[in-house]
Amino acid sequence: MESPAVEIAGLVKRYGRATAVDGLTLTARRGAVTAILGPNGAGKTSTIEICEGFRRADGGTVRVLGLDPASRELRARVGVMLQSGGVPPAMPAREWLRLVSRFSARPLDPEALLGLLGLAEHGRTPYRRLSGGQQQRLSLAAAVVGRPELVFLDEPTAGLDPQARHACWDLVRELRTAGVSVVLTTHYMDEAERLADQVVIIDHGRAVADGSPASLTGAERQLRFRARPGLDLDELLAALPAGSAAKESPAGHYIIEGQVGPELLATVTAWCAAEGVTADDLSIERRTLEDVFLELTGRELR
Ligand SMILES: Nc1ncnc2c1ncn2[C@@H]1O[C@H](COP(=O)(O)OP(=O)(O)OP(=O)(O)O)[C@@H](O)[C@H]1O
After folding, report:
1. Would you identify the CATH topology of the domain 219-286?
2. Is ligand 1 within 6 A of the CB of residue 79?
3. Which segments does the entry list as coiled coil (predicted)?
């Protein structure tokens, strides 16, 4: 049987006395997009860098395409998006991409990639004169130009404008269609929800949730509205059908769960009217990945 794209079991990474990754276990499937989410400092970059062979683990096992991450064989098979670029400052964008493509036996067309990522007009611009977002797109192009089997993308769309973000998403979808495995980290929940086949949420260096976006958010719908903070939810609950739940999170934002149908909707609006409360932005929605993320990882800043 073909080995998974990435298989991590009981991974531990320490920096001095601090434990950044604390027994992380996850499997990223071949040909799928796996998104690793987690608050700042959760251990995402440490994990990715261990998979890329840039850092050593202090415990546990990591297999990338069935091999040790340090294996030389992986260099030609794995694409890595470097945050700092690793590009000589005076190197024009097109020349860099062409140079990187020559390391591969079957590269993608550098010109097509430049076009896809909106860099065609900047092909002659030295790397140091590209904007931050353009440099980032060039790093993304360089990670995939060698037609790798697996790509690691650490926050590929951080700081990109909406157009560039959509172009990046299109590229990731094209990679998946071509059978490439993609492992990415992101702080954008909508990005994970749109792109990922599998989402792994990590917190304090451990996986706290793992599954498809739909399985994590569930099928249940919620009724949401905004109103003045501090409504008496016990009183509201007493009026709702049995089995309902109500919470205020954050202040002034109300979420009602249960059998969300006409009866519940009518009861909530009637109760609000009786209280003299206007329910703003009333909507019926499924839980979002952001809801799940905040429930699992809390609201404290890291
Ligand atoms: N080289 C290092 N030396 C010491 N501590 C480090 C080093 N790299 C990371 N850490 C610490 O390890 C923890 C995990 O960092 P890591 O960069 O893996 O988190 P992350 O999930 O990628 O965070 P972010 O979302 O902010 O990028 C943090 O507390 C960080 O301060």
Report:
1. Alpha-Beta Plaits (3.30.70)
2. no
3. none
